[in-house]
Amino acid sequence: MKSIRRFMQGVAAVIQADRHLFQRFPTLKLAALGMVLLPAIYAVIYLDSVWDPNAKTSALPVGLVNLDSGTSFRGQDVRFGNDVAAALEKQGQFGYQRFSDAASAQQAVRDGKLHFTVLIPKDFSQHVVAGTQPGAAKVAVYASEANNYVGAGLARRFAPELAQGVNGLMSAKRAELNAAGSLQSLAKLKEAVMRLNVGASLLTFGLEGAVKGSGELEKGTVTLKDGALQLQEGTRKLNAGAGELVPGMKQLGAGLRMMDAKKPSNGDLQALADGAHGLAAGEAEFGKSLAQLQGGARQLAGGVRQLKERVPDPMLMQAMAPLDAGAGQLAAGMGKAGEGQARLAEGARRLDENTGKLAAGLMKFNEGIHAMAAKMPEDARIDAFAAGMKQLADSTGAFAGGAMRLNEGAGKLAAGLVKLNEGAATLSAGLQQVDAALPAPGAEGDTGAAIPAGAVQVDLQVSAPVAGRAAGFAPNLLAAALWMGVVAMAFLFHFNRLPASVQQAPGLSKALGKLAVPGVLVLMQVIVAVLALVLLLEVRIPDMPGFGATLAAAAFAYLALLFALVRVFGAAGKGAAILLLLAQLTSAGALMPLELTTGVYHAVQPYLPMTGVVQALRASLSGAAGGAWPNALGLLLLEGAIAFLIAAFAGKWKIVRAEDYRPALDVDMAGRAGAFPQAGALAATAK
């Protein structure tokens, strides 16, 4: 806090010292008033009697857009737009730059890259040839007054010259085309009539064949009509048959799907075949066992007989009689059983063989049933088939009606071709008469028809217009006038000199205090200059806040730059400020367009303080310069801040006695004898 208070006390002490100069030197007030009025007086006088330079313009960038699509005249392709563009470039009055579209060229004008643009429209040649009304063919000149008032003035003066030159060029081109095209047109006309005559003869020949063909066509349509009627009858019967077929197809489909659902599975059929095969195998084993039983029965019967023979005992014989009889019956029965078993084995073998075939056949039958059921269409498709057959029957009826109408049309066509053939013969005879009546090429009186000579009109289009000359030059000259007012402060105050009473104040506070009083005077200059523009020159300012803020920022930056020049270079800094003013006037385009200057001005132009001021003033006065002016104004404020810091810490202050601290301007010397009454107090405050 102590350092801040000391800082602020230093600033106040310097301000107080400069303020008391007005008390010590009364005429300083009049001098300050003159400095305040100086920029306004300069601006009013200069803007009211501004000089419009008439310098060499071939270096000025001007856009050239040729959109002419051309047209045809007497069989020749003409592009008058190319002739106009070539003539302008050959004339070399401006530095023309070609653009392929109008929007890019117009944007370049609005951005300040071009002074104006010449636009040749797409239908230029068509309107020149047609000549429907005077001035139908137009050439546009697009300019922006706010971006470059001098360039817009050149465009205004150039527009009538352009109209006169283009009309003269079109007259010359018309004469060339008429001279070169008359004989050629007549020769082409005779050639065309001859070709028409040949074509008419060929047409007559072709129509004779067409008449014959139309007769054949009529016969063919009769046959077509009869066939269509027969087709109609056939489709009617087909539709009736389809109506009877549909229910049967639905029943067949239902039966096949039911058989497919009820059929035995392949597994069951295979089990049946395997069972029959097992039965045959078991029967074979049974036959073997029965043969063994037959052998045993025979052995039993033989054994009984042998026993009876060996033991001739009546009682034993009597007892074995039933056994012997039973053994015989058993042997007889086993023999019959063997015969039956043989027949059974044969039946089992045949059953096994036929059951396998049956199972295989049933499997294939199952596959066939399933395939038939799958291929059988659904009822909906069968209904659709029936509907299609009905539609076919209806369509064939319509076809038969069309065939009948076609037959009628063929008859009318034949009659019309006969009349057309008669007309073609008449046309051929008339063309022969026209060919005989046409003069030979080069005959006397064959001058040809001229292109209508409707004058070309030049349409001047102005973007970002300004109210008058003063408003057009105001951005450049007001920036220069403000610079002059700021430079005058260096002749009013010593920017390197301070009284001894503030010697101990901080360096930054000394610099800030030193610029306070000149800064107030410069702001007063801004206010008076704005009032002079509005009240005396009646300049309309749409964006007054932006306009005032730009001038205030310019005043700060200008004063800081002047302060830095004087602090670093001393008295020579004042001369440097004057030279810098001239350089900026040239680079900012205030005296003449920048393109007419040397290359060094092109290089430094973006970085000079006045460049940003001019762009910002143009934007606030008319909305020109696009949206780039805030960047330029920001660069200006940055330059001012850097210049102030350089002034605060560069150079060396010259400390003088309080009674010797006086303005730079040689005013009333009576104040020199007076003491500086506040010197002691200021010194105490600074300490």
Short description:
Helices cover 72% and strands 6% of the residues.
Description:
- The protein has 687 residues and is α/β, with parallel strands linked by helices.
- It is 72% helix and 6% strand.
- The chain has 17 helices and nine strands.
- It has helices at 2-24, 27-48, 80-91, 102-110, 124-130, 149-262, 266-310, 314-375, 379-437, 469-490, 507-536, 544-569, 572-587, 599-604, 609-622, 629-649, 679-686; strands at residues 61-66, 71-73, 76-78, 95-99, 116-120, 138-144, 457-463, 497-499, 654-656.
- Strands 4-1-5-6-7 form a five-stranded mixed sheet, sandwiched between helices. A two-stranded antiparallel ribbon has the order 2-3. Strands 8-9 form a two-stranded parallel sheet.
- The longest helix is centred in the first third of the chain and has 114 residues, at 149-262.
- The chain starts with a helix and ends with a helix.
- The model is unreliable at 48-55, 442-449 and 669-687 (pLDDT under 50).
